[in-house]
Design goal:
mainly alpha
């Protein structure tokens, strides 16, 4: 995680907050930078967001998070 954060030029804490859902709507440049470091297109990120947004919420009350 540290390598990804540093390569994307975001703090490791910011990346942890995004990953854990504590930052519900990260800024677009942040998302774009992280996607670039991970080798993901923004189209792929958007498709994953839409796929998880339409999944039913399990009994625990949390939607699955993409990794």
């Amino acid at each position: 995680m540290l390598d990804v954060a540093l390569a994307a030029r975001v703090s490791p804490e910011t990346l942890r907050k995004i990953e854990s859902g504590r930052v519900a709507t990260p800024a677009f440049p942040t998302v774009a930078a992280i996607a670039g470091v991970l080798g993901l297109s923004l189209d792929a990120v958007w498709a994953e967001i839409n796929a998880t947004a339409h999944e039913p919420v399990p009994a625990g009350g949390h939607q699955r998070r993409a990794r």
